Amino acid sequence: MKKKQIRAIVISMLVLLLIGTAVLRINIEPAEQTPGLPAISEPLANADGPADAHSVPDTSGEKSTVPLQSDPAPETDKQEQASDSGNTTDSSPTDKPQATEPPVTTTETPPAETNSTEPPSPVTDEPEQELAPTETPALEVERHICTIEIRCDTVVDTSKLENQAVAPYVPASGVILVTTEMEFSPGESVFDVLLRATRDSNIHMEFRDDSLYSGKYIEGINYLYEMDGGPLSGWMYKVNGQFPNYGCAAYKVNDGDAIVWMYTCDLGMDVGDNSTW
Q1: pLDDT of 201-223, one tens digit each?
Q2: What is the distance between the alpha carbons of residues 273 and 243, in angstroms, rounded to a whole number?
Q3: Global pTM?
Q4: Which residue ranges form the domains of the chain, and what is each CATH number?
């Protein structure tokens, strides 16, 4: 009985040794199976020699290896014969340990790594901050302002008119255009301001080019022409209370200038011009 126990222990140790050697030497991978056909077992190729005769070429480029079932029974029989040489007792077949087949393990091929070098974008829970639109301050345009007024006080008494046909165009107040602010551009003249003011207010104005009067001569405003109030009548202008001695097209307007156009019947003497002509 003692010999049987020793023999069983020795056989068990040999079987475990064989299983451990097989597990260390064999790398088991899943065999490729053709649909409809049983799987083909393929032994591990010997790294130092030619492939085993039972190897089946793998057309997929990867070699799947499955170990052939090894039967340790012959070695076990040898051990039993060596042990039975000194023991005449019959042993039951059930006393022999059954050869165990090494477990088949499968290894999953890891997914191929991508060659992307882009770092993963950080995920933050913070909401995106919207940049407030920057307001561009509007450039302040410099304004140039003057005033203009048109009067015909000298002929409010229409009996003085030699041309009575224009009497209906003479206002009773003598004011054709009340004092009005006008915006002008640097370099503009009194004539430019008068032309724009009469057009804006829909007031009749007629002029001619005349080099004697520095380029422009005003013939009539609001249908009241020169000579309508006598041989010395006509239109004159003053700026800031002064009567320039040159034409309106030559006088350049400045900020704050007060321009007044008036109808004279006596070469300016009746409207305050005391200059000598």
Answers
A1: 999 999 999 887 778 999 999 99
A2: 7
A3: 0.51
A4: 2-31+38-95 (no CATH), 145-271 (2.170.130.30)
